[in-house]
Amino acid sequence: xxxxxxxxxxxxxxxxxxxxxxxxxxxxxxxxxxxxxxxxxxxxxxxxxxxxxxxxxxxxxxxxxxxxxxxxxxxxxxxxxxxxxxxxxxxxxxxxxxxxxxxxxxxxxxxxxxxxxxxxxxxxxxxxxxxxxxxxxxxxxxxxxxxxxxxxxxxxxxxxxxxxxxxxxxxxxxxxxxxxxxxxxxxxxxxxxxxxxxxxxxxxxxxxxxxxxxxxxxxxxxxxxxxxxxxxxxxxxxxxxxxxxxxxxxxxxxxxxxxxxxxxxxxxxxxxxxxxxxxxxxxxxxxxxxxxxxxxxxxxxxxxxxxxxxxxxxxxxxxxxxxxxxxxxxxxxxxxxxxxxxxxxxxxxxxxxxxxxxxxxxxxxxxxxxxxxxxxxxxxxxxxxxx
Length: 387
Ligand SMILES: *Cc1c(COP(=O)(O)O)cnc(C)c1O
Known about the structure:
This protein is α/β, with parallel strands linked by helices. It folds into 2 domains: 3-251, Type I PLP-dependent aspartate aminotransferase-like (Major domain) (Aspartate Aminotransferase, domain 2); 253-386, Aspartate Aminotransferase, domain 1 (Alpha-Beta Complex). The chain is built from 14 helices and 12 strands. The strands form 2 sheets. It has a 7-stranded mixed β-sheet with strand order 1-7-6-5-4-2-3, with helices on both faces. A 5-stranded mixed β-sheet has the order 8-9-12-11-10. β5, α7 (183-186) and β6 (196-200) form a beta-alpha-beta unit. The chain is globular. The termini are far apart. Bound molecules: pyridoxal-5'-phosphate.
C-alpha cells in the first residue's frame, strides 16, 4: 500500500462501538484488572498503557501514522516541536560532547544550542548550508551529532541530505534532521540515512493553526532512549492534540500539494519584481541550492521568501498594506501568513547574528495558504505597492 493510504488507514484498535474515527482517550491514567497485569506493564513485559505521560491510544495513533509517512520504525510525540528538539539533544548529548549544526535554524533552536546546551557542558559549531565540504574540519573527537533543518527556517537553504548522511556515517555521528518545512510529503530524511527525524507538528502537519505538537522519530533502540527521557521529564503530547493531529494527517498530502503549488505560483510571479532584490523558493531555478532540491524534494513546500530593497521601513509598510494575509509568527496554516523575521522570530539575535543566519532587514516570509492563488498574489502585490 502507498504510505499515504497506509497512514490514513492506520488506526489503533477500535472499541466495541466500531467507531470510524478514533474516540478521544482524555484520561491521565489507565487501570488494570489485577496485580499481575499491573506488574507486567511496569516491567515492560506488555505494552499496556499506564499513564498518559508515558503513552496514550490517541498519541500512539499519531505516532504510528507518522512512522508510516516518514518510513521510520518508532517515534515519541511531544507537546511542541521545541520539546521534541530539546528531548533529542538531552537524550543523546552529554557533558563534554560537541554538536555540529547548520547556521540557519529556527530561532528557539538557536537559543537552546547557544544558551542552554553550554550550561550542561555541550559545545557547538555552526556550519554554512551551501558548503558541506567545509563541515568535516569542524568535527572533533567529541562531536556526537549533526543537527540540520532543510529547507531551513527562514533562510530556505537546502542541504544535501545524502552528502551530510555520508559525513555522519563516516564519523559515527547521529544525524538529526528537523523536517518541519518539507513534511514527509516532499522529503523523507530517513530514506537518505538520517537517524532522527524531528517535526514541529504545529506547522504543516496540523496545517490548520489549532494545536501545538512535536515528534521525534528514529529506530526502535534510539526511540526507546527518547521515550525513557520523556517518560521521566514529561514533555508528552496531550491526547486531545494527538487526536487533532492524527486526523490532520489524513489530509496532509492534498493540503501540501495545494500549499506548494500556490507557493510556486507566487514565487514565479514575484521573481524579478522591481521592489525586490531577490525571491527564494526551492523550485525556482535561481535558488542557489535548486539542484539539491530537485534531487531530494518532491515539491518546494509552502514557504516563499523575498527581500525588500527598502529594508526595515519597507517591511513595515508591506505588512501594514496587506488586507487578506495574516500577520502572524506561525506558518503552515490554511490561511496565508506574512512575517518579518528581523522584527519578530529572530528579534532576540543581534544584527550581526541575524545576518549570519541569512536574515536581512527586508526579509519577508510568506506561508502560502489554501486560498485561491490569484487572491494571495493580489494581496502581496498590494503590499509591494506600498513597500
Ligand atoms: C516552529 C518550528 C519549530 C518549533 O516548533 P513549536 O511547535 O513551535 O515548538 C522547530 N523547527 C522549525 C523549523 C519550526 O518552524
